[in-house]
Every structure is written in structure tokens, then in C-alpha cells.
Write a structure and sequence with these properties.
Elements (H helix, E strand, L loop, with lengths): L12 H10 L4 H11 L1 E3 H7 L5 H13 L3 E6 L5 E6 L1 H4 L2 H17 L14
Antiparallel strand pairs: 1-3, 2-3
């Protein structure tokens, strides 16, 4: 498990604390899909995040699991099935990811990327 820093007094410290957990090119995208679907299989996540390699996806999932954000459940079936869900602690990131989603929608609209604004949202 990677040792995480607890930032205390300097300006911006809560942001640094948050970013060390959700930073990484794919972590916020993984969280977005878990908020939308509640439970995802590895293959579903890989299909949903097509530009992310299987190796990178596995690495990002492992880090989120180590940080207590997601829970991994492996089923001893043939073929092997692995499910991922958000933990109670991971659920606390909902407003963070929702804000990222809303900002991205505004950015895409501003840049006239209408195809990108047609995504379904997970915001209640």
C-alpha cells in the first residue's frame, strides 16, 4: 500500500489531499462510471474506457482499492469475474466527481463539442 501524506496547515492542503487520491489519468473516469452503474465488472470498465490499457486500468483500480475508495470482489467462476463497487468512503467523492462532470459539460459546450455533451450524467 502506498503511503499517503496528510497535509495539514498550508494553503491548498485539502486540495492536495484530495488530488493524491483521485489523481491519475483514469481514476476520476473510473469513479464516474462506478457512480453511474453502482457495480462494474473489469471488462465493462475496460470497454467504457477504451483508451485505457488493461494494465493501466488494473493499476488504477488497485490504487483506488488500496486507498479504500472501491471494493473489489472476485468470484471463483469460470470465466473468472471481478466486480468493483464504491465503498462508503468512496461515496463521499460523489460531489467531487459530479463537479468535474458539470465542468466538463460546460467546457465541451464552450468548445462546441456537441457530441461530447450528449453523455448521460449520474447527477441526481
Amino acid at each position: 500500500m502506498k503511503k499517503r501524506q496528510v497535509y495539514s496547515c498550508q494553503a491548498g492542503c485539502p486540495v492536495e489531499s484530495t488530488l493524491q487520491i483521485i489523481s491519475g489519468k483514469w481514476k476520476s473516469v473510473i469513479l464516474y462510471h462506478l457512480f453511474k452503474q453502482k457495480l462494474c465488472h473489469f471488462g465493462e470498465l475496460h470497454s467504457a474506457i477504451a483508451d485505457c490499457s488493461r494494465r493501466m486500468l488494473a493499476l488504477q483500480l488497485r490504487e483506488l482499492e488500496d486507498d479504500g475508495i472501491i471494493k473489489k470482489t472476485i468470484f471463483s467462476e469460470i470465466p473468472l469475474r471481478t466486480d468493483y463497487t464504491l465503498t462508503e468512503f468512496g461515496q463521499t467523492l460523489r460531489p467531487v466527481v459530479a463537479s468535474l462532470e458539470q465542468w466538463g459539460i460546460q467546457y465541451n459546450r464552450k468548445r462546441n463539442r456537441s457530441a461530447d455533451t450528449q453523455c448521460s450524467t449520474f447527477v441526481d
